[in-house]
Amino acid sequence: MRHIFKCKDCFDLLMDYLEESLDPETHKKLDVHFAACPSCLNFLKSYRACSEMTQQLQDQQVEIPQEVEDRLKTFLQEKM
Question: Which ranges of the chain would DSSP assign to H, the alpha helix?
């Protein structure tokens, strides 16, 4: 376990890390990096929390005021 990851490496592998689809050695290297890098650890925690909230909210429906819906449609039509 010689290779040490840089922050960019962690970012590139984050989804695989969270989905636990990395090989054990790579996963362990990322664990080591997260333990030593507060910035990456904070990013990991925020990303994980966001992901969990998204999953919890995916089945909820939100009522959008008609004015907002109209403005959004107009905006999208103008951009397309």
Answer: 7-18, 24-36, 38-57, 66-79
Distance between CA atoms of 77 and 26, rounded to whole angstroms? 45
Residue with tokens 């636990």: 20
On whether residue 56 sits in a domain, the answer given is yes
Per residue of the chain (80 residues), what is the pLDDT tens digit? 455 788 998 889 999 999 999 999 999 999 999 999 999 999 999 999 998 888 888 878 878 899 999 999 999 999 88
Q: Which amino acid is at 35?
A: A
- Per the domain annotation, does 2 fall within a domain? no
What predicted TM-score, i.e. pTM, was given to this entire model? 0.63
Q: Could you give the number of structural domains in the chain? A: 1
